[in-house]
Amino acid sequence: MNQPNHVAEGASGEAALKMQVGPRFSADWKSKKHRERRLVSEFIGTAGLTFVLSCGAAVLSRYGGATLAPFEYAFILSAISALWLVAAVYFLGGISCHFNPAMTLAFTLRGDMGVPMACAYIVVQYVAAAAGSCLALFLVGMGGNLAATIPQEGMLWQAVVFEAILTFGMVLLVLSMANGPELTGPFIPLAVGAYVMAMGTMGGPFDGAAFNPARAFGPDFARNDFSTYWIYLLGALIGSVSAVIVARFLRGPAKAEESLAAMGTPLEH
């Protein structure tokens, strides 16, 4: 049974949700059943993202029928990833749909989830990203570098700043919109897809436009080339932390409902 609203007034994020939701909250993170469904959801969403991108790049390279300009290539891959994310957020949003270590970090810094569960999320996201790209490599080969994120020569630090900006926008968008009972409001998946499509098309020819360190990791793992991976990790870290600071300034501490959006809807006992 929910506690009265005044109980949670002095708390924010996860603490507020625990007081408001009551006994069902403990089942959310501490019950094996609830943890596993969250992690499986994260695996499906993240593996699907790298799979469709890596497959898309290889298929375009092998069967595209023409040499594509970098901007055309980026547009097609951005559309593929955007459509997958829209679909995945719709069907997995009530369970868990971060699909991005930068997003998980942001929710953790905001107080929506604890560090142990965040670490489990990030490990699963990385494993899933590697699995998705490796499956694509097995099925369709190495074509198109499996949609690897590769910066322009001599512009490594510019790429770090670029990734920080793209990650900042993505994280701020989700933190600003995820204030309902779950991350499946009617417009949130469309907003995420639109952002991915726009920024991926614009930034793809420059550095691959990952704004997701797991998305960058998957193809690098399948290709066994991590020479520039640090760019996408550092950029995502800077962008995510900056977005949390700005979101707190704009919206204040996370409310219980916003914390629930980060976690997904608890199952009944």
Automatic annotation (TrEMBL):
SUPFAM superfamilies: Aquaporin-like. This is Aquaporin. Its main location: membrane. One of its GO terms (cellular component) is plasma membrane. One of its GO terms (molecular function) is water channel activity. PROSITE patterns: MIP. It comes from Fluviibacter phosphoraccumulans. Belongs to the MIP/aquaporin (TC 1.A.8) family. Keywords: Cell membrane, Membrane, Transmembrane, Transmembrane helix, Transport. The keyword Transmembrane helix applies. It is a multi-pass membrane protein. It is found in: Cell membrane. It comes from the Bacteria.
